[in-house]
Design a protein that fits this description.
GO terms for molecular function: structural molecule activity. By secondary structure, the protein is of the alpha+beta class. It is about 55% helix and about 10% strand.
Length: about 190
Amino acid sequence: HLPDMRTPTAMIVGLVLCPCGILLTFTGTLAPNWRQVSLIPDQPVDLILEEGIWDICREQQSSHDRRCGQADELGYFEQVAVRAAQGLMPASLVLTLLGLVVAALGVRCWQKEPRHLLAGVAGLVLLPSGLLSLVPASWYTHELWALPAPAGSTLAVGYSLVLSYLGSCLEILGGLALTLSFHHCCKER
């Protein structure tokens, strides 16, 4: 009986989804657009405020004049959902990086046999990393309309929040795929 030299499909799925997930989560964490505030009374009609977890930008769409580092006059950054995101999103990124390193060591495409136990452990690290970014994205979405905004303005979900959601889900799915490697360990015993 010759050893099967192909990398198991579940490991490949995990190694594709998790890096995609961390890219989306990283972009969502840094880009200042978790929420868009528009149609602000007493302001130009084409002015949009883009609020992230680190910065507030204002853009006038007709002139594409964009200025970041806007003053937080309403206490937006003091809100618990924003504070939680500031802590949990970077923690998720660090944990995902750690999980990807362990996954790379476990999958070892360049070796004859992958280390199933290590790949499974990587999955157990990547699962909570995805949850660590899913929690603040969900919490922020729940609080989106309750967070302080100029009275009478229109609020909308920003692309950074959507990217954070998608990245979290890809990390969770990739982590689940890698945990399937434990099945192989049980078969060997």
